[in-house]
């Protein structure tokens, strides 16, 4: 089986045009099949504010009313996704932009309104990897934004970390999947103030202990839960760190495994 | 060679949610390979106005400054394109949304600033039909919005009629292409006030005469020029009329041929 890299980039890259362009130039050089996944949180909030649409976050997650969903669709699938695709083309990487609606790739259900009503927020139920696989096998790099659909015509705002893990899982029958979560830190830290405190290896057992000891705290937990969900579902390796880990395997970062 | 329908829809459908949903339900039922092309003029202008970005039109064409290009990318490639894709999926038509940047499908150059500076407006120079062809051969319907790219990272606003004819030309080596321009009239009219005055057949010779006699006037000329450009470049048939012509071949409309 061919190896494929599924790379999720975070707000620290998306929100900074220079950082994004520099990252995409490097990403284009990565050899072999690859997939890029992005959100676009801050730009969506800025656009909502410009349009006088209130931005509501509960526990770090966006409440997506109908107007906000429109903004997200415009910013994620329009502005950001197409800028990324055009930049990759400039670097001779043949990219095609995707939401979960394109190719019926990611089907989700609207999250139940209780206990918290997040509005048009989607929880993934099915990944159909056929169309991305077809494109990947023809040297195309799919670029996914954080939007899915219900298959009944409704688009849904969906967590980009979840999209990345679900896509990786969906591709694992045909590829040896390597999942990379790039964010503003060099990895999972024991001391959030100290970038040198990267935990280089985490497995299910040590994760349990890190949680029990309160070393890993709230914001990190859904990300790590996503990682272990992926590992339990045939994803070969999962890595968390800065984008540098993609281009230099010796760069210190966090690698996760089951055992 | 398999027949393929390339269908361009206009503002009268895009700007009316009910009309769009009803059209897409019918379009999904069309048998055989197909491609949909859309612009989204009015919604882009509305969004620009909401964002206090001035809307400037010269001779019916939009002047696209950097801010306006962002709006167009958000509205065309985001909001409209993804709503169409999600609706088609709901009707069991497997669609994938495209700009010309996706799959490097349509490469254009920025229109010269003289005699009129239209800003980030693109004139098509190359169509690469490989990725759409691959998808079409796998029962996918590409949905194109009116945006192209320079291959140097720049997106460009591009006339949707032109996109439709260039895509049709690009697909003509592998398919028998039928190009349909749907708009608010039942066809090309001798009397713009009278919907019964449809000219059912136009060829190069009669087109020349209709122009000379002033029967066909300004707004219609670029559309018809596009049609004849397509016919001169291997597109099999071109039709202009209401969407009804797609679903009932006996519906009165304008058919174009070279001779």
How would you describe this protein?
- The structure is a homodimer of 259-residue chains.
- Chain A is globular and about 40 Å long.
- Chain A has a single domain, classed as Acetylglutamate kinase-like (Carbamate kinase, 3-Layer(aba) Sandwich).
- Helix content of chain A is 37%, strand content 23%.
- In chain A, strands 5-8-2-1-11-13-14-12 form an 8-stranded mixed beta sheet, with helices on both faces. A two-stranded antiparallel ribbon of chain A has the order 3-4. Chain A has a two-stranded antiparallel ribbon with strand order 6-7.
- Chain A contains 9 helices and 14 strands.
- The longest helix of chain A has 25 residues, at 66-90.
- By secondary structure, chain A is of the alpha/beta class.
- Chains A and B meet through helix 4, strand 5 and helix 5 of A and helix 4, strand 5 and helix 5 of B.
Shape of chain A: globular
Beta-strand share of residues of chain A: 15-25%
CATH class of chain A: Alpha Beta
Q: Which runs of chain A of at least 5 residues are low in confidence (pLDDT < 50)? A: none
CATH-level-4 superfamily name of chain A: Acetylglutamate kinase-like
Q: Could you report the average pLDDT of chain A, rounded to the nearest whole number?
A: 95
Q: How does the major sheet of chain A shape up?
A: 8 strands, mixed
Number of domains of chain A: 1
CATH topology title of chain A: Carbamate kinase
The CATH architecture term of chain A is: 3-Layer(aba) Sandwich
Strand order of the largest sheet of chain A: 5-8-2-1-11-13-14-12
User: How large, in whole angstroms, is the Cα Rg of chain A?
Assistant: 18 Å
Seen as an oligomer or otherwise, the chain set is: homodimer
- Separation of termini of chain A? 23 Å
Task: Please identify the structural class of chain A as seen in this structure.
Answer: alpha/beta
Helix content of chain A: 25-40%
Order of helices and strands of chain A: EHHEHEEHEEEHEEEHEEHHEHE
